[in-house]
Amino acid sequence: MIMSAIDGLVDEVVADVDAVLLFSPSAGTYEAFADDDADVPVVVVAQENAIDAETFVELPLAFTDVDGRLRFGLEGAAQNGLVEDGDTVACATSMFGDGMDTVVRVQADQYSPTGVYNLFVDSRPQPDVVRDVFEVCIELGRKGQKGKQVGALFVVGDAGKVMNKSRPLSYNPFEKSHVHVGDPIVNVMLKEFSRLDGAFVISDSGKIVSAYRYLEPSAEGVDIPKGLGARHMAAGAITRDTNAIAIVLSESDGMVRAFKAGELVLELDPEEY
Amino acid sequence: MQVDVPRFIRRLFSEEAAFAFSVAVLVIGLVAAYLAWRWTQRALTASGFVDAVEGTPFERSVRAIGSSTIGLIASLVAVFVYVLAIVLALNIVQLLDIQLFWTRLTSYLPRLLIAALAVIVGVTAGYRAELAVSERLRSVKLPEVAFLGDVIKYSIFYVAALVALAQVGVSTNALLILLGAFAFGLVFLGGLAFRHLLAAAAAGVYLLLTEPYAIGDEVRIDDRRGVVQEVDVFITRVEANGEEYIIPNQEVFQSGVVRVRG
Fold this sequence. Notes:
The complex is a heterodimer. Chain A is of the alpha/beta class. Chain A has helices at residues 2-14, 27-35, 66-79, 116-121, 127-143, 159-164, 186-193, 230-241, and strands at residues 19-23, 42-46, 56-58, 88-93, 102-107, 152-156, 166-168, 199-202, 208-215, 245-249, 256-260, 263-268. Chain A has eight helices and twelve strands. Chain A has a seven-stranded mixed beta sheet with strand order 7-9-8-6-10-11-12, sandwiched between helices. A five-stranded mixed beta sheet of chain A has the order 3-2-1-4-5, with helices on both faces. In chain A, β4 (88-93) and β5 (102-107) form a beta hairpin. The relative contact order of chain A is 0.13. Chain B is 69% helix and 10% strand. Chain B has ten helices and five strands; from the N terminus they run αααααααααββββαβ. In chain B, α2 runs antiparallel to α5 and α9 (195-210) crosses α10 (249-255).
């Protein structure tokens, strides 16, 4: 009997787990788990808590790659004390399409945390500001500027210090303006200005402080993967020198990368969103 | 002293003549209504009213039913004139001898017309004013100021509604007193409760618009020295060596700012 063999395999995957992470479950799925008598904590990971789950980790983006999504959920659960070090966790998520089709068994200390959860929740800038900048980057990476691939560098948070560690390349088009990254007009403005060289500086609360900034951090001890260009090096270095985070859209390979404390934390492919 | 035209006519002619006369009044009323309709349309077109109403939501919704604001106003005037003629004619033949009812109706009709006009003009003017204000404020790159336009628009709507209601005889005194009390309470108690916030906001608006210091400048306010990290309507955040000062904007104004250059 083949079916009993596969049943056994699934049983093995979910055997003796200490917690269950449900990624964007339907209300029915969640209730079935919540009503279960087994003493296993159930954590819901989703973009919004539409089903009023008790333990909930908010996803800031609809991570399309399963790896990033699982990492965010696991790190979020660990950060909130829902999952302990050494726990075995079963994650149910969807890899293709909408329904849940994948169950993954993870030992909570088996993978090395990348700090993707901290990037959003524990950084100096507010979480929704980080998310907005990501969305702008993804949008810019997908559409480009007039059909051409563009690069961009956003330095988010700790703006006062960043401004003192950089100098203007030209007149600042955002001087005496009060636009924030979440404003609808901003996508268009940033798209236009992305043709310019230099970095965008964004404050903790999301105000766009300046464009056209030439960053002058000391690049000592910055360790970023080989093969990335000057824009990424500048991004890594400024986050090491200040409490800012940096989000880069690469001109050469079109990827969106985030840096914090001098290290590459997250890599996204805009084409997947 | 009012001249009683109908009675005068009836006394002058026979009953039949009075009937014929009332028919004539109806016909004259028809012609007068048409003339009034044409005259209103011409006068409004000549006065540039078209440009004023063009593009307002009221004009759009009127267009949807196949008319225009000017057409609507002209029709209103025409209907008013014609209804007056009908009332006069009925009065002459004395089909209904409830004098009181008619005098009331004739005095009520103009008020109804004025009320309708007040609503039309109020709605149009409200949207126009909102547009003008938002156009003027466009140079201020602060998306939240759009709120100001809404306030002006709805204030004009409110005044128009008051005028219309007063015209049709609804007693608006209670409404006015209520509004006055509400506004007074709001301003007085609100001012009392929010006076610090209001002072901070007043200073903050100035700071945001003129930007005497910007994010990244090193400043000293009283004895707090550091780098400006954030300026919003209410507060300024200044950071120095691991300490972040959150300073209400009115303090910035009262004690002044030292910009440290160098």
